[in-house]
Design a protein that fits this description.
Order of helices and strands: EEHEHHEEEEEEHEHHEHHEHEEEE
Largest sheet: 6 strands, antiparallel
Number of strands: 16
Structural class: alpha+beta
Strand order of the largest sheet: 2-1-4-5-8-9
Shape: globular
Helix content: 25-40%
Radius of gyration: 26 Å
Strand content: 25-35%
Oligomer: single chain
């Protein structure tokens, strides 16, 4: 359960809206506190993590600086919550960004796995939902329409763990209401990057491989759509079956041909330079990253507007050719399900 909570109202300065700062912390009963905690933390479902960064020194990142002060001395909670709200107010450079309530929350001595760690939550509500209030009125009922905050999903949230301060802490971040501005929450306000961990490496290795198979491989080699589908299936199966990624094992088991392996290594090098990232050649595989990324690995052959062929397994059970009626695919199977 959190030990401190304050709410400020942060409007969009571009639209002439104001910033309203609370002077006191909220005092909540246990039921309301539990309701809000479930609401705040319910959107953190991904294992993807981030860290603060700065173009110069980390201390020049306003949110990093404020949460560091709070972690050092909880007596500064109110003062620094105001600084965070002021920074968010100044970060709005797009008229589409919606104003809303900004909650700053301190989670004290929370258990994380086998350890206890303090956390600071920064949550912003933006959307308003209509609802009905029904109340007794003499011998009948009265119905009124009102608007409020729905409790199904927070609009924007960041949870900062009091770990790894020197490298920008560890954060979980979500933005469920981008309003046509992808950078407002992650970049303009928080200024965070994805952490260089097993989740990141698993995700990036899968995506660079997918890009290679779908874009580069057909340019260099004579491969069919069925061959491409087979490569994608093999790669996903490799990541599902292994606990650790090793580039040499992956290349030999999935790519096979030495010319294709050389081509992929060259593509990976160019990809890393273009994206300014480094994809490790050995790392523990993140099961969560595989599960999230595999939705992009759809092995589908689209034939005109008439048919889609989904390939899930043995490449040898599909053949293609051409006769006087046109091009065709031949599928072999044991039983119809």
């Amino acid at each position: 359960m959190f030990s401190k909570i304050v709410v400020h109202r942060v409007g969009n300065k571009i639209n002439g809206e104001s910033l309203m700062l609370s002077q006191e912390e909220l005092q909540l009963d246990e039921g309301m506190a539990e309701l809000l905690e479930n609401y705040f933390l319910g959107s953190f479902k991904s294992e993807e993590t981030f860290h603060f960064y700065s173009d110069s020194y980390l201390v020049n990142n306003p949110v990093y600086s404020s949460v560091s002060e709070i972690f050092e001395d909880k007596a500064k909670f109110m003062w620094e919550s105001e600084n965070i709200a002021k920074h968010l107010f100044e970060a709005a450079e797009n008229p589409r960004v919606q104003g809303g309530e900004l909650f700053i929350v301190y989670f004290e001595d929370e258990r994380e796995g086998t350890e206890k760690v303090d956390k600071i939550g920064i949550f912003k509500t933006e959307k308003r939902e209509s609802f009905l209030k029904i109340s007794p009125q003499e011998e009948s009922f009265e119905i009124e329409k009102d608007q409020g905050i729905g409790l199904s999903k927070i609009d924007k949230a960041a949870l900062i763990y009091n770990n790894d301060k020197e490298t920008g802490y560890i954060l979980s971040v979500v933005d469920n209401n981008k309003n046509g501005d992808m950078y407002y929450w992650f970049e303009d306000f928080l200024k965070v990057k994805q952490r260089d961990d097993e989740y990141f490496h698993t995700q990036e290795a899968l995506m660079v491989y997918k890009d290679y198979i779908t874009k580069q491989l057909p340019q260099e080699f004579e491969v069919s759509k069925a061959d491409q589908a087979d490569f994608l299936n093999k790669s996903i199966n490799f990541f599902k079956e292994k606990e650790e990624f090793k580039l040499d094992d992956f290349a030999n088991e999935v790519l096979g041909d030495e010319h294709v392996i050389e081509s992929f290594n060259n593509f990976k090098t160019d990809y890393e330079q273009d994206m300014q990232i480094n994809i490790a050649e050995e790392f523990p595989i993140s099961e969560a990253a595989v599960k999230k990324t595999q939705r992009h690995f759809k092995s589908i052959i689209k034939l005109d507007k008439n048919f889609h062929i989904y390939i899930h397994g043995d490449r040898k059970k599909i053949a293609q050719g051409e006769d006087e009626h046109g091009k065709y695919y031949m599928l072999y199977f044991e039983k119809e399900v």
